[in-house]
Amino acid sequence: MKTIGLIGGMSWESTITYYQIINETIKKKLGGLHSAKILLYSVDFDEIEKCQSSGHWDQAANILTAVAKNLELAGADCIVICTNTMHKIAPQMQKEISIPILHIADTTICQLKKAKINKVGLLGTKYTMEEAFYKERLIKQGIDVIIPDKENIDIVNDIIFNELCLGIIKDTSRKKFAAIIQALKNQGAQGVILGCTEIGLLIQQKDSVLPAFDTTIIHATSAAEFALE
């Protein structure tokens, strides 16, 4: 079994889900008392968030690259960044290490293709929704991407950072997300990417009128499967 190097803490609320899903997947596939071989480096999210909001992405890249190098030296066979947004700097990180970074968008694309989805709604932080680094990977694979309007982008981003990352789950916020997903469906989306690893804490399939692709579940499951290849 390969060793998975997790870069977590962004936020730690969703990192718990990664740890649980990876171990549950290993147990399901191998049975008995089997569990995953995991190295977890959990960062201080406040430091990373300040880099995001101030536009200091190179500084964030330096921080996470140093973490990835440490995980590689410690024996990790792959890197899993437990957040969608920080995949913005994954190409810079990959250049500095010799083990693969399992890209969260690529694992999600595999599931979208299996479901024959060619037009998808994307929810996440404002960085993930508005910038090109995530959407371009989907578009290059022939998948059109729809994002909410500016007002709803702000609503989604606010709920992520001021509620979900703090472990606050509100039914009123769930209803707001459900309405935004309905709007994406009205625009022609065939499915919706829950493109922030905390959204799954709030929204499950029963809350969505569209097939929901929870990137946390997809990414964590793919990591476990990689470990068993």
Write the CATH fold name of the largest domain.
Answer: Rossmann fold
Assign the CATH architecture of the largest domain: 3-Layer(aba) Sandwich
Number of domains: 2
Kindly report the average pLDDT value.
Answer: 97
Order of helices and strands: EHEHHEHHEHHEHHEEH
CATH class of the largest domain: Alpha Beta
β-strand percent reads 5-15%
- Number of discrete helical segments: 10
Cα-atom radius of gyration: 17 Å
Q: Write down the overall geometry.
A: globular
In short:
The protein is an alpha/beta fold and 229 residues long.
Task: Summarize this structure as a short list of keywords or feature phrases.
single chain, 229 residues, alpha/beta, Rossmann fold, 2 domains, four-stranded parallel sheet, three-stranded parallel sheet, 10 helices, 14% strand, globular
Structure explained in plain terms:
The protein has 229 residues and is an alpha/beta fold. The chain has two domains: 3-103 and 218-228, Rossmann fold (3-Layer(aba) Sandwich), CATH 3.40.50.1860; 105-214, Rossmann fold (3-Layer(aba) Sandwich). It contains ten helices and seven strands. It has helices spanning 12-30, 45-54, 57-74, 90-94, 104-114, 126-130, 132-140, 150-162, 171-186, 215-228; strands at residues 3-8, 37-42, 78-81, 119-123, 144-146, 191-194, 212-214. The chain has a four-stranded parallel sheet with strand order 5-4-6-7, sandwiched between helices. Helix 1 links the parallel strand 1 and strand 2. Helix 1 (12-30) packs across helix 10. It is globular.
